[in-house]
Write a structure and sequence with these properties.
The chain has 400 residues and is mainly α. The protein has a 3-stranded antiparallel β-sheet, covered by helices on one side. Strands 4-8-7 form a 3-stranded mixed β-sheet. Strands 5-6-9 form a 3-stranded antiparallel β-sheet, with no helix packed on it. β7 and β8 form a beta hairpin. The chain folds into 3 domains: 55 residues, no CATH class; 110 residues, DNA polymerase, domain 1, CATH 1.10.150; 166 residues, hpI Integrase, Chain A, CATH 1.10.443.
């Protein structure tokens, strides 16, 4: 008996109108488990799954059952293209990226910036190179050499590598490759986590020199960033209703990237931060009669400002005038961490104020102390070593 290999099928999905006037999704496929491979159909409600993407995500498990992942894996050698297609559909990358500026409508998926980055890496780099390659034939050494050949920064190459790692994990989860050590764990990219340049650290004097140069609302924005260590995405998404002046605390629970308001960067970032009385008065002066809404609404759109525009048009020109040509938003967060060091704040308190998930991030990534603090600490050590010897010499001189 001749063996006939069944092709992997995605089926066809269409939106149809019933006699009652209601619309439904009809997903049609061939059932190879039945004699004659008859056409079969799965019907989904448009009310429950309003978009085509919603319907396709719901059908993913059915498609795998129809095709039998193990048989498909054995006979058809699933390609990276198949993994990319399912990943893009299941994670709704296109829907997330197409969200207009404002409050995010998809809150249970990737952030807008993550989805935008993944879509870009997939379309520009991963898909052109690996789409037709069976995942079982993708070797770590070849992937490593390819990543090194990309004309991208070391950090971006690291992001592409991390995405490939995620795709291999999903392939194992979906049963399209054997559960094994992820090939990307063997790939090492030098400089992927290394800073391209040392972050700017402001002295109190430089900050006092900077503030009067800025017009509102940028002046108050910068003061908020400097006095709290908040990320600029959090500053620009801050709302009055999240500030409790009586309790002396602010709740940080939203961030904005490219005008899209969504979740904060990490779970640890969603937390209260203290509100110093003098700092609170600055906010109250800025608040005026406003009672709710964004603390810093754009005078053009009424929505959120774009951080990159402010950095290029406001911060960098001002920074050059005070001798900080690379001044950017993140300098205030790094400086805040440095000042915490100078106050002698315990590292655990610093972690909570910085709202880091891991204390190692507080110590390693944001561990730049100012030159003044380094000198003071170093002098204390020197005095401990030199002072006793100097005192002994002076005693001998007096005895003579």
């Amino acid at each position: 008996m001749k063996f006939t290999r069944n092709r992997y099928q995605k089926g066809s999905l269409r939106k149809v109108r019933r006699k009652s006037g209601a619309y439904v999704w009809e997903y049609r496929f061939r059932n190879h488990a039945e004699p004659g491979n008859p056409m079969r159909q799965i019907t989904l409600s448009v009310l429950e799954f309003p978009t085509r993407t919603d319907a396709l995500v719901r059908l993913q498990s059915d498609v795998l059952k129809i095709n039998d992942p193990q048989a498909f894996k054995a006979h058809n050698k699933p390609t990276m293209g198949l993994i990319i297609d399912r990943f893009s559909t299941e994670e709704r990358l296109e829907d997330i990226v197409k969200q207009p500026p404002g409050e995010a409508t998809i809150i249970d998926g990737f952030s807008w910036s993550t989805a935008h980055g993944y879509r870009s890496y997939l379309s520009k780099h991963v898909r052109p190179k690996w789409s037709s390659r069976p995942i079982a034939e993708m070797k770590a050494l070849e992937i490593s050499e390819w990543l090194k050949s990309l004309k991208l920064s070391a950090k971006t190459r690291g992001h592409v590598g991390a995405l490939l790692h995620l795709l291999f994990e999903r392939a194992m989860l979906w049963g399209l490759m054997d559960v094994q050590r992820n090939p990307m764990e063997l790939v090492r990219l030098k400089g992927a986590s290394k800073r391209r340049r040392k972050p700017e650290i402001l002295t109190p004097e430089k900050f006092q020199e900077l503030v009067p140069m800025l017009n509102e609302p940028y002046r108050t924005m910068v003061i908020v960033a400097m006095c709290t260590g908040m990320r600029v995405s959090e500053v620009l998404a801050l709302r009055w209703e999240h500030i409790d002046f009586e309790a002396g605390a602010m709740l940080i629970q939203q961030g904005v990237v490219n005008g899209r308001i969504g979740k904060v960067k990490t779970e640890a970032s969603n937390d209260y931060i203290p509100l110093d009385p003098e700092f609170a008065q600055i906010l109250l002066n800025w608040k005026g009669t406003k009672s709710n809404g964004l603390v810093f609404p754009s005078h053009v759109t009424g929505g959120c400002f774009y951080a990159g525009v402010i950095q290029q048009q406001i911060l960098k020109p001002a920074g050059k005038k005070i001798g900080l040509p690379n001044l950017g938003w993140h300098a205030f967060r790094h400086t805040y961490r440095s000042f915490l060091d100078e106050t002698g704040a315990p590292i655990g308190v610093q972690q909570k104020l910085m709202r880091h998930s891991n204390v190692a991030t507080t110590m390693n990534v944001y561990g730049s102390a100012s030159l003044k603090a380094k000198k003071q600490a170093n002098s204390k050590v020197v005095q401990m070593v030199i002072a006793p010897e100097k005192h002994h010499t002076e005693q001998l001189a007096e005895a003579v």
